[in-house]
Amino acid sequence: MKFRIDAFTLLLLGAIVLASFLPVTGQAADTLATVGTIAVALLFFLHGAALSRQQIIDGATHWRLHILITALTFVFFPIAVLPVNALSSIAPEWMPADLGLGFLYLGVLPSAVSSSIAYTAMARGNVPAAICSAAASNVFGMMLTPFLLLLLVSTSGAGDFSVAEALKDIILQLLLPFAAGHALRPWLGGFLSRNEALMARYDQCVIWIIVYSAFSHSVVSGLWQNLPFRAVVLAILICFGLLALFMLAARLMVRKLGFSLEDEAAVVFCGSKKSLASGLPMAKVLFSGHPGFGMIVLPIMCYNQIQVIVGAILAQSYREKIERANLAAAHAPKKGCKNH
Fold first, then answer.
1. DSSP per-residue string spanning 75-119
2. Quick one: pLDDT at residue 56?
3. What span, in angstroms and rounded, lies between the C-alpha atoms of 272 and 325?
4. Which parts of the chain have pLDDT scores under 50?
5. Which of 9, 12, 28, 100 is the most exposed place for a label (fewest CB within 10 A)?
6. E strands along 198-301, which residues?
7. pTM to 2 decimals?
8. pLDDT at 4
């Protein structure tokens, strides 16, 4: 089986390299930061217009599955990253404080919508359940992520974090644009549904701007001087470990609850993934102007690339299992039928 790095991953890596050697500074940096802020608000406005009312309120038909995915995303994952952040006080040379804060932020992010659904579909899993859970995770994540982050930061004492400022920025830059976009859905929804590829391109452009601007700011503030190579290696290993832990936990819980193999695929992908598309724009709002921004978003960037690669392999494995199970079920003698 052959895998290749997609173009967007290369563009993100290119943004980091460009920021490392040619960081934007001075007035240009301020202008780019303003452009990024406006782009993020427009991003959530468009997502509000694209999301149907049914997608927002749906999910009650398979409530046990959605509760499990929500618990994995917003309860167990945040708890799992607390010991990782604790390393910043035990071994700061391995886990700088801002990197530890980044893992707390990774833990409270919502599930990734597009990749969760895409991999569930690739695996022949329960796609409607994946759509409901991933969409609901992102809608509620805009409200849950900041509050959970505040809770974890206050619990662990990680960094400085202004509650009032964060809430104000979330309301003004995320929730209000999202609500305004959803109110205008009757006029914009049709256009956006016909131009999903254009929306995806805009998402990627916003993320690229955020990454370049953020890493430029961090490089100028001494990112590579303050972030040892061993800390980067450790961060990558921890991301691998977290993904493996939650994929395994999802499988064990699903089998304990007696869900189908199709449901298992949906839970594994939705419950273990974290959204880069939502994570970076929200980080732009929550940590605006933070000198360690590059370190804070490093875990989600590492985790995202790992989940893409591992997800592709696992989706193929699930697809083969589900197709074999469906084939066996199709050829199995039905109850009540007699052979003549």
1. IIHHHHHHHHHHHHHH-TTTS-HHHHHHHHHHHHPPPPHHHHHHH
2. 56
3. 24
4. 1, 59-60, 337, 339-340
5. 28
6. none
7. 0.73
8. 56
| Helical axes 293-331 vs 261-272, angle rounded to 10° | 180
Can you read off the two tokens belonging to residue 94?
Answer: 């391995």
Q: Which residue has the tokens 């100028």?
A: 220
Q: What is the CA radius of gyration of the chain?
A: 21
d(C-alpha 218, C-alpha 236), whole Å: 19
Q: At what angle do helices 229-257 and 261-272 cross, to 10 degrees?
A: 150
Q: What DSSP state is assigned to residue 195?
A: T
Determine the distance from the C-alpha atom of residue 3 to the mean position of all C-alpha atoms in its chain, rounded to a whole number. 22
Residue corresponding to tokens 């400085």: 160
Q: What pLDDT is attached to residue 84? A: 92
Please tell me whether residue 5 adopts helix, strand or coil conformation: coil
244: tokens are 């493996």
Taking the CA atoms of residue 329, residue 317, residue 10 and residue 213 in that order, the dihedral angle to the nearest 10 degrees is: 80
Q: Are 47 and 177 in contact (CB under 8 A)?
A: no
In terms of C-beta density within 10 A (0-12 exposed, 13-18 middle, 19 or more buried), how is residue 330 classed?
Answer: exposed
pLDDT at 1 (0 to 100): 46
Which of 9, 19, 6 is CA-nearest to residue 210?
Answer: 19
